[in-house]
Amino acid sequence: xxxxxxxxxxxxxxxxxxxxxxxxxxxxxxxxxxxxxxxxxxxxxxxxxxxxxxxxxxxxxxxxxxxxxxxxxxxxxxxxxxxxxxxxxxxxxxxxxxxxxxxxxxxxxxxxxxxxxxxxxxxxxxxxxxxxxxxxxxxxxxxxxxxxxxxxxxxxxxxxxxxxxxxxxxxxxxxxxxxxxxxxxxxxxxxxxxxxxxxxxxxxxxxxxxxxxxxxxxxxxxxxxxxxxxxxxxxxxxxxxxxxxxxxxxxxxxxxxxxxxxxxxxxxxxxxxxxxxxxxxxxxxxxxxxxxxxxxxxxxxxxxxxxxxxxxxxxxxxxxxxxxxxxxxxxxxxxxxxxxxxxxxxxxxxxxxxxxxxxxxxxxxxxxxxxxxxxxxxxxxxxxxxxxxxxxxxxxxxxxxxxxxxxxxxxxxxxxxxxxxxxxxxxxxxxxxxxxxxxxxxxxxxxxxxxxxxxxxxxxxxxxxxxxxxxxxxxxxxxxxxxxxxxxxxx
Length: 491
What we know:
The chain is an all-alpha fold. It has one domain. Helix content is about 70%, strand content about 0%. Strands 1-2 form a two-stranded antiparallel sheet. Strand 1 and strand 2 (about 190) form a beta hairpin.
């Protein structure tokens, strides 16, 4: 473990890697601060371009975009009452009133400082629990990994807001997506309709670009002019915002732990952490009536939690390959694209990659969020005024050219367009895109480990109930699937 950490330090502290970390955070802040684009769209847009990078650098770049975008989302939430990301929704409750009260710079400073502290705490937690994660993950063999994949698919009942039937239906379509092309375990070609172009199946990167970049641009096309309908004068004090955050360490630590824990729950993510932390801050304050009218504690709690949720979300993503949000689904797409398999290998032979990701995020939250957030606060408001007439064609062109450079395949381009249209209608009719992605990402993992397990057992399904760990996973699957109905019975 010490050797892997030393190797990670040597890799991350090179000039080239540090420049990629800087580029990722800056780009993430710009994306998060621009409503209508967001972190997921930007990560999907960058993903095909990382084909020219080595795997570790590509994952570091995507992770830094994720973390930077989480902070950037607070900019539009505070200045124009429109959260740039779902994880900044609760920030609008007090951030925008502070702007209207002439404290926009103060609110942005609190956001930057609390985001940095929240990120630092989550990374410290990750480093402390990594030895335990290593021991735990190495307990899993093929039958257990198959059940983990089923557990991730069962999370569809959690991530699918609203109708469970809709969530399961769209999740099954995601599973079908992975069955096109050659089987991963046998030389059988499936659903290629006699076309050699479909021999290798449908590309997950093309799916991510279509579902996020293209579908979001179709939705954004309904907007006219700049995204910001109002302008806010940037006034207030950077020093006051930093001082307020430092003098409330208990609130920062509590919100950060809430964010880390909720972020580690697949299907929860930063948006849930955002609201839970805000609600807890309101409850524990003893002055709940001041929240919603410009209370600094509301901004602090929501921003500390959503950035720490990024660190927490890396736990299920790296350990078992289960995405808890759209952004971590794209991050997983990056792993698969570069031939890196989340799971035991990332805490065994590839432990240096895991530590490199931790260190890159640590550098970002300790150095870049405070520097970017505090030094360019007065310029961030311009990002909320970008005209959609420039955003839409730029992202569409970059999406098409980017995906074509990956495999030089017209099938990928067609996949981007078709899933872009499909993703738009998914959003319009309240089908969960994350549920679809769970099927796409976990389908191959489930199939490979099912086939491998049955090979070991000679075709007997008893292998899935032979170990205590397998039985625990089966019980968890049933509890998750039945949880919506159990909640209704309780009510």
